[in-house]
Design the sequence.
């Protein structure tokens, strides 16, 4: 039975998710002044440690790699180039990301809580997507811009003023919510399906305003994942071709040029696309400056500036990790991702064997697998070692496997406890209700 401390801790965790995603301290200054998020984190941590239910999961087979990264970051402090930055920023920001894993694993322990977390996650991120769109439609807000060449710039839609995400971050949110809307939300009933069909053009229009090439590629990967899992492949191909054609014909000249630069060297913005490719080489040189230990957790930007004269963090996750915590840390992070993938695969196998395709766990597993495929692509164009998403979904992989095992065990137990029932003799075959009941025997 769930203990009071555990229930209250989960309630605080849900409130923390809302506060984190909607940036409540930035919207309400009083919350920022009292450092409400820190108070929530400390309160949740205290309640988890106090409740005996969390002790079994605190250090599990997946989390040990995260603990190893943190321990390695401390041990390597005397050897890294900027230990002060590691202590003041790197470790602190890494912990801010990793807490999503530990809170999720310790507090989301049944289907009901999993539904609540996914509902909060998708709903809050939809708000973050729609808010800047509304500002754009009502005030012309864009929030960012990109250089087109020849001294001209084009506006790009980023997060709302109270948010912290740039255009690529907003595109990532759009790509993130799509699989959950498609697999988890749309099949609930006819009303949710109608809402889903209404949201599709809204999300695609917002994606176009971001001018994010990596976002479009991410949507392409999601579409491929949905197509791969679907039994209506030919129909999806036809609808996809029609949809892409209609969307492309309705883009303005800047948008068309931006997205054509992904595959064409003749587009006006091809130079910036080529710059991304060349960035691999520059980031690799920085990583090879200290290949084994790295420059220190959270120091990618400093390393790029001091070694390559580039004042930005690496926009390639794998290079960011290599630059900061070296090959040792990179291996640990890959092992963590491998454990996450194993969790999803094992959960998927259990769910497919024992549960219906209409089951919430089945639909959630499908969505998370497609999301993981998309995020692996997005990692080639975005940093993320200290971002929440890898750790929230790492925790969800553990939860999904745990809940799937619980559900399968319950089904097996119920089947074992069933007593054989007498077969009923049914004369009137037109009594469909009774006939259906008998067919289930």
Sequence:
């Amino acid at each position: 039975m769930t203990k009071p401390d555990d229930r209250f801790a989960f309630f605080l965790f849900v409130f923390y998710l809302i506060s984190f995603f909607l940036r409540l301290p930035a919207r309400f200054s009083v919350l920022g002044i009292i450092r409400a998020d820190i108070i929530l984190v400390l309160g949740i941590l205290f309640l988890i440690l106090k409740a005996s239910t969390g002790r079994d999961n605190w250090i599990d087979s997946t989390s040990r790699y995260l603990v190893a990264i943190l321990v390695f970051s401390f041990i390597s402090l005397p050897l890294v180039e900027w230990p002060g930055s590691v202590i003041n920023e790197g470790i602190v920001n890494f912990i801010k990301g990793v807490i999503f894993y530990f809170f999720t694993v310790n507090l989301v322990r049944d289907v009901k809580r999993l539904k609540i977390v996914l509902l909060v996650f998708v709903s809050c991120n939809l708000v973050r997507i729609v808010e800047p769109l509304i500002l754009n439609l009502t005030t012309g807000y864009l929030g960012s811009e990109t250089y087109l060449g020849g001294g001209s710039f084009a506006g790009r839609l980023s997060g709302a003023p109270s948010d912290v995400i740039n255009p690529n971050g907003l595109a990532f949110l759009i790509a993130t919510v799509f699989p959950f809307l498609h697999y988890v939300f749309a099949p609930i009933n006819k009303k949710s399906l109608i809402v889903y069909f209404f949201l599709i053009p809204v999300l695609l229009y917002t994606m176009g305003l971001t001018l994010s090439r990596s976002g479009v590629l991410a949507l392409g990967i999601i579409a491929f994942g949905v197509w791969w899992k679907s039994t209506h492949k030919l129909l999806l191909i036809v609808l996809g071709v029609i949809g892409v054609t209609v969307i492309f014909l309705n883009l303005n000249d800047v948008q068309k040029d931006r997205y054509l630069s992904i595959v064409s060297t003749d587009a006006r913005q091809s130079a910036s696309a080529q710059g991304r490719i060349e960035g691999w080489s520059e980031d690799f040189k920085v990583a090879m400056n200290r290949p084994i230990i790295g420059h220190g957790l959270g120091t990618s930007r400093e390393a790029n500036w001091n070694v390559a004269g580039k004042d930005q963090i690496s926009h390639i996750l794998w290079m960011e990790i290599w630059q900061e915590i070296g090959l040792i840390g990179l291996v640990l992070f890959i092992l963590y991702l491998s454990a996450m993938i194993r969790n999803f695969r094992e959960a998927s196998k259990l769910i497919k064997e024992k549960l219906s395709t209409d089951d919430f766990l089945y639909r959630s597993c499908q969505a998370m697998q497609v999301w993981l495929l998309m995020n692996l692509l997005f990692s080639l164009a975005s940093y993320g070692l200290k971002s929440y998403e890898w750790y929230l979904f790492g925790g969800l992989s553990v939860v999904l496997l745990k809940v799937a095992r619980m559900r399968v065990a319950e089904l097996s137990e119920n089947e074992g406890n069933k007593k054989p029932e007498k077969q009923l003799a049914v004369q009137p075959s037109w009594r469909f209700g009774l006939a259906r009941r008998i067919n289930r025997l």
Remarks:
- Confidence is low (pLDDT under 50) at residues 423-441.
